[in-house]
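Help wanted!
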Amino acid sequence: MIIPNYRLGPIDLVTLLPYIAMLCIIGFILAIVPLLIWIERVVISLMQDRIGPNRVGPRGLLQTIADGIKLFFKEDIQPRAVDVRIYYLAPVLAMIPALTAGATLPFSTVRFRMEDGSVQTFPMVVGNVNIGILFILAMASLQVYGIILAGWSSNNKYSLLGGLRASAQVISYELAMSLAILSAVLMSGSLNLVHVVEAQMNGFWNWNLFAYPPLGFIITVIYLISMVAETNRAPFDLPEAESELIAGFHTEYSSMKFAMFFMGEYASMLVVSGVAVSLWFGGWTSPLPLLDFIPGFIWFLVKLFALFFVYVWLRASLPRLRYDALMNLGWKRMLPTALVILFLIACWNTLRTPQAQDANPVSEITMAPARAAEGER
Amino acid sequence: MLNDYLPVLVMMAVATVIAVGMVVGSYLLGPKKPSRFKQSSYECGMTPVGTARERFPIKFYLIAMLFIIFDIETIFLYPWAVTFAGSERAVKLFNLAEMAIFVGILFVGYFYILWKGAFDWDEGQREDAEQPSRKIFEPRAPIRFGNESSGEVRLKAAADVSSSPTEESSRLTHV
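Answered by r_m:
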């Protein structure tokens, strides 16, 4: 699919592309969250052999939209005990990183016919920056602030415990997560997700999932586990364990502020799934070269929804972990495993690199100033 | 170069506007009928006891401190990984040896923390950790429930009392 003109009247579409991508991402997140909640409820009801939502709209499709509108018009209860400023700040702080984290996530490519008639490919990404994955990690960490401030400012024992648990869990699993991301960076040699995806083009056998078998597969599983723990989803949903903590950090929140925590959670689920797709499953590229005619964003969405289905599947099939088991898994199993696998991948990569044939270019560079000094003498 | 970051900043601004708009919107749109019971802290319908500004387990601080140590270590690994992939074999071998030393030192610290029992979350494991001769990969102690465990505590106390009669009174009050 080639867009014939890179200009739309006086507007240069190429410079406008990041802003179009921005609108796509924010609009997609805001629009898709009700659909995701509906999918989750329907899939879980099918797995548990019950009917699920079926009243509002066809097959209950409009149920979550009705819930959202209802929440908007609900009373904004402000309990007396809360720390008012932080209580209002917390949902905002939970929402901003969730919406912003997708900024460095490429989800498609666009091909423009340029002025001189040549066709150029541009990635659809808000910030095509060379620290892409670090930005996403930073935003994922910032989300903890919203949760822990919500738990603390509520001045409710359940909220406090939920906030503490959430923060301890998120930071514990972030280590395994960043080590897993690191091994993908090692495979591709760049922090820019566009380059990481481009290194996995032309067929599913080039995906990082199948690189360095079976190390790539193991590290992908480690990433997927820590991704679920990072977003506080079942079976790692201890911060909001209904049976012991009511709702955890958002017990005292009502109306839209409550819904914002939900939206933040689903948005961050989308973002970490998108990172998983880009790092391990080939991003927007098609799994077989003969399917290249299908546009990139469709492949991206297919992979994204497949991962979301895994989330729902896990929630329907696994019981909640005990807290000490959760910490054991994070610190005693996944962190050392990820570190060892990272090191093994580095060793394998070194073995696979062919021996340099001719003169060593690096030593040339280091020698150059010395030679210049000699000439001066 | 910096132009690449401009859309990211714009996106952050748009996200802020959306988030603030949602809070303000629901604040303005919803009805306001405050009452004493509605505004009390939620504690399963009971009258709330005290505030939540109390002490909480030290373990959370410990996890946060350990996180800082290991997170900085992963941050050190990032530039290494980026330069590693592009270099040639001799340079890679050198980098690999360097990183082996770095990760080796890190693992010494890791196993020390593990041996000290900082990763053992529950009380049963923590008691074991105070003994210096504890093996690192010891199987978990079986979990005890309710009456069983209280029975165990009493037995242990009785044994202690028989060995040191001077501490008798304090032990008994503790039980």
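OP: Thanks! One thing I noticed: Chain B touches chain A through 74 residues (CB under 8 Å).
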